[in-house]
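Predict both folds.
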Amino acid sequence: MKVILSALALIAAAPLAAQLSPAERDALLADAPADPYADRDADVRQGVDAFFAALRSDDKTALARQMVPEGVIFVHNRMNPDAPRVDVVPVAKHLENWLKSPPGLDERMDYQTVLMDGDMALVWGPYRFIAGGKTSHCGINSLSMVLTEDGTWKVANTSFTMELPDFCDELGAPEAPAQ
């Protein structure tokens, strides 16, 4: 309620603010309350950061600590443009397969959109997947995040497109880290 009243006060003061000097206007705005959701957004981003750190880790069990095992992964596989398909993989099965994955895997994502409502969030944006120092594929990630009982954000479900590396620039995928 304070945030709404503060915003209304600022709106009501807008004609006054037009007559203020830049320094006076800055002082008035400095007293406005901070974005009440900024910390929550940062917490969600921290959960996604932890997910990608686990993915990059040589500890193949780390990823399981960042995902909800009951979740589902939808892979919109467009690697063969003549035969696109959608693969549905239970997170538990993915984690089982992940234990056998080679070292040196990396994924970089640009968190273009973060939406939140209470204990659920969605993080959306382009990504690049790197294996053996080379781009394997890229696409768009949609990560469904859930706030767990211990207060951390984890990946519950995910959908992502898998595109050939030729499409990475068009999709806005982050650059691969320098080797």
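Second protein follows, with its predicted structure tokens after the sequence.
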Amino acid sequence: METTTRDITKLNLNDIPETCNRCIYWSFPEEFEKSQAELPRRKQELIAKKRQWILQALKKFGSCGKILYHNNLPVGYAEYGPPNRFPQIREYKSQPIGEIEDGVVFLACLYIADQTLRRKGLGEELLERIIADLKRRGFKTIETYARTGSSENPSGPVEIYLKRGFHIKDETDPEFPVMRFDLQAHST
């Protein structure tokens, strides 16, 4: 299986998988629910809003995501950055997510868009690239929300994270616990 992973840049924004290129769940939660009912009409507007968010994140944070390609086709997507750039975090019961000033990066999305390629190790491969990137850049910790007992979640199932060495930081909401990975304690 031939795969490559590339950082999101201005040049490959069009490669973000369709399901992800208009998703504003984490970054604009107040608009997300409204946009779902109006998706066909607002699709281009949502894509533009998502691109604007990514370009701002690139300018302020640097690399904020990755695209996974299989046979040169984009099939996976990951998005991460400073926790304060993802206001939807406040809506989750399991807390707290750390701060960027403390070296914490929030992984908002780890998603294999092509369902036929799920459970084939591509999510793990994408996660490995994120870990290597953030470790190289000197960050201390990755935190994310994962879903217990289901892979139907933008950041994936709890099991993918436990397998890689993440631990459950808080499970006030047992369906969506906060997963934490100490980049300094683990080698890539």
